[in-house]
Write a structure and sequence with these properties.
The chain is α/β, with parallel strands linked by helices. 47% of the residues lie in helices and 18% in strands. A hairpin with a 6-residue loop joins strand 1 and strand 2. Helix 5 packs parallel to helix 6, helix 6 packs antiparallel against helix 7 and helix 9 packs across helix 10.
């Protein structure tokens, strides 16, 4: 079992990575002194892993009462209404200030459960049990929670760190191939934004990663979690270096908004968004065409799209100006200086539109 600590002083917490990590849940609830537990899951994950979660709690912490709320599956349900379902379940389940919400699912469940935990009684504990590759390597660590509204993605939310993150690579075996590819987008991101050697490793081992080779997955997930933990330690509230983790997300969030949060998976939009960030960086004179093609090729090998078709560049630009990463109406992008080296800067309108037209926007 691999163990990392996210070092945030009194709010530090462990990440456990390895086969059987879910079995640690009861012990983690006991460690934090939880009085009750509410498991938040969805209609896809619940039938697969709810029983294992209940057994883990019964084995190590049989004194803790457990209730479950099951939400519909999909990004289109990541809204305040479904967060209120969690809140109502917390009320009916008798959760007090020492209770804990357990997020059993992918990034959507993790974000909503974490957000509900941040609000219930002004903040109770949450333990993340991520069941998608994307959630395991990125969204379950760092405490960013939130929901989507018509104006944009994750515009309502809070920073609320988990008390523990339990990552079991074996659960990935039940993922559809498309979900695996979506998770790999966030993995490629880590190589592009700050680790050229890791990017090389992904070029060598992409086929094994897509096939969910157990050794490859364990090493890659552990590496990404270590990188994320270090970034969160440096910049918990995303006022500096942590914003680099948004590489590809400015374009990606626009894709998701324009397609209604259902046509594209988040990771698919991020994959295409990374290619667009690379094209933009080339247009700004920071990287050459060879670097762009290395990024594009790795995105395609991951089974991800590298461009869009039929979406309005003008509508996307308006969406990006309303994104939470823009400041004073000026859009800030993570630009690539080299594979493994990125910066954040405001970019003028013309190269953004040129980039979008080159990548298939109308």
């Amino acid at each position: 079992m691999i163990h990392y600590e996210v070092e945030l002083g009194a709010r530090s917490y462990p990440i456990w990575i390895g086969a059987g990590a879910i079995a640690r849940l009861g012990g983690e609830l006991a460690r934090i002194g939880a009085t009750r537990a509410l498991v938040v899951t969805n209609t896809t994950v619940g039938p697969l892993y709810e029983a294992a979660v209940r057994q883990a709690i019964r084995t190590a912490a049989p004194q803790i009462p457990v209730s479950v709320v099951t939400l519909p599956d999909g990004e289109c349900y990541k809204d305040i209404g479904h967060v209120m379902e969690i809140i109502e379940a917390a009320a009916s389940g008798g959760l007090d200030r020492r209770s804990c919400i357990v997020a059993l699912g992918g990034g959507v469940i993790g974000d909503m459960a974490g957000f509900a935990a941040s609000m219930w009684m002004r903040g109770i504990a949450v333990i993340q049990v991520p069941t998608t590759l994307l959630a395991q390597v990125d969204s379950s660590v760092g405490g960013k929670t939130g929901v989507n509204i018509a104006a944009g993605k994750n515009l309502i939310g809070a920073f609320h760190q988990p008390s523990s993150v339990l990552i079991d690579p074996l659960v990935l075996r039940t993922l559809p191939e498309r979900e695996v590819s979506a998770g790999i987008a966030e993995i490629v991101k880590y190589g592009v934004l700050g680790d050229a050697e890791f990017f090389l490793l992904l070029e060598r081992e992409m086929d094994a990663l897509r096939a969910l080779d157990s050794d490859t997955v364990s090493r890659v997930v552990a590496h990404c979690c270590a990188m994320k933990a270090d970034v969160v330690r440096q910049d918990e509230l995303e006022s500096g270096v942590r914003a680099k983790l948004n590489l590809g997300h400015t374009f990606g969030h626009a894709i998701e908004k324009l397609t209604g949060y259902g046509t594209w998976l988040h990771g698919e939009a991020v994959g295409a968004g990374m290619v667009m960030a690379a094209v933009l960086s080339r247009r700004l004179g920071y990287i050459d065409g060879e670097s762009v093609e290395r990024i594009r090729k790795l995105v395609l090998r991951a089974g991800l799209p590298d461009r869009v078709g039929g979406l309005s560049a003008k509508e996307a630009y308006r969406a990006m100006k309303g994104d939470k990463k823009s400041q004073g109406g000026v859009i800030r992008f993570v630009v690539i200086r080299d594979i493994g080296r990125t910066e954040i800067e405001a970019v003028a309108e013309e190269p953004v539109f040129e980039t979008m037209r080159e990548c298939g926007w109308t």
